[in-house]
Amino acid sequence: xxxxxxxxxxxxxxxxxxxxxxxxxxxxxxxxxxxxxxxxxxxxxxxxxxxxxxxxxxxxxxxxxxxxxxxxxxxxxxxxxxxxxxxxxxxxxxxxxxxxxxxxxxxxxxxxxxxxxxxxxxxxxxxxxxx
Length: 131
What we know:
The chain has 131 residues and is α+β, with helices and mostly antiparallel strands. Helices cover 54% and strands 16% of the residues. Strand 1 (73-76) and strand 2 form a beta hairpin.
């Protein structure tokens, strides 16, 4: 477009169009940023809510508390079995210090990548009332 040959009215019209486009984009950007901010605040509230629920549940479960005091973390495998691992003990390469609880058999089992000292094994069985 050759701006040299535009009339003042045409230049003002273009200026008006540019201002409207800029305002539209700014409003859209503000809207998007506002929405993102609201979602982040809501997600933080939800996370805090569930963090509190998890903390309450953990504090009510004596077995979990005792195992955590020993340094173990617990989680569920997709099979439904319970994994008990101490991630801080790493004295054997490619192996985890812990065990798995077979929920159906109500017994301790070991995967190939797991090991556990007999003293901890006995304590875990005692805590979970498997002996």
